[in-house]
Design a protein that fits this description.
mRNA splicing, disordered N terminus, RBD_domain_sf, four-stranded antiparallel sheet, Splicing factor U2af large subunit, Alpha-Beta Plaits, 11 helices, RNA-binding, U2AF_lg, alpha+beta
Length: 330
Amino acid sequence: MFPNMLPFAVGQFNPLVMQPQAMTQQATRHARRVYVGGLPPSANEQSVAIYFNQVMAAIGGNTAGPGAPVKVRRPTDYNPSLAAALGPSQPSSNLNLAAVGLTPGSAGGLEGPDRIFVGGLPYYFTEAQVRELLESFGPLRGFDLVKDRETGNSKGYAFCVYQDLNVTDIACAALNGIKMGDKTLTVRRANQGSAQPRPEQENILLQAQQQVQLQKLVYQVGALPTKVVCLTQVVTADELKDDEEYEDIMEDMRLEAGKYGNLVKVVIPRPHPSGEPVSGVGKVFLEYADVDGSTKAKTAMHGRKFGGNPVVAVFYPENKFADEDYDAAA
């Protein structure tokens, strides 16, 4: 009998052995794959294959060094029950992960069946705002707001795990489908097959939904009039790089915005020469002496065409503007 082959009684057969090789590979594909995220832009298929072959050889497996950290986990179609029938279901304890500078279990608590995917987040939501929204249901054990590697801006989705795993389904049920600005949240277990809240959880769910609705009003940028108006789809980052063009844009904005009231200040964040991320690039902020002026400006400018695109005008929190925090609005 071959190693790693389970004995079968007379009249029985191993379906995996009897299948043609191509069918066997397809049947075991979910158990042989891993997800690798956070790769640098320079990575390609060949370099990734070479790297993992070297790593597996170094740690004593069947096959990191400097650079950006990568994420390695099972894909969403992984089925542990089916995988268990194909061979060992747990990593070998004999693998020398230290040989390549890896530490087991360093995923920040963001693995397992209770890991939650939160999609459809408005791009202007900060980490603190997303955490506060999620923590309506309890403290988090792990949290990761996924950001663009080049710009540092949010990609609009995150992952989290609660300390109390019993609230996982409550949070998913309460948050999923909620409107946030022009976005609709998609909240579910990262691994498909989520359960529904149990009857005894219904009261908690109702209270949580009410709390979320209150927070939704707080985060709904532009819901309440302020003295500051934020314009988007007016300028591009490339237009702001040239000093002369930047000054022309500033002057045009002062003249146009001054038609609607006593204009106090115009702020147009521009890209940093070094390429470092700058908050608010692509937005124009108009501060007026009173709400009457800002309201007239918002009404007049919202929806106007600029460069073929409709301008979006919203009220902006005055405290955020005063603190030069330009990431609270789209």
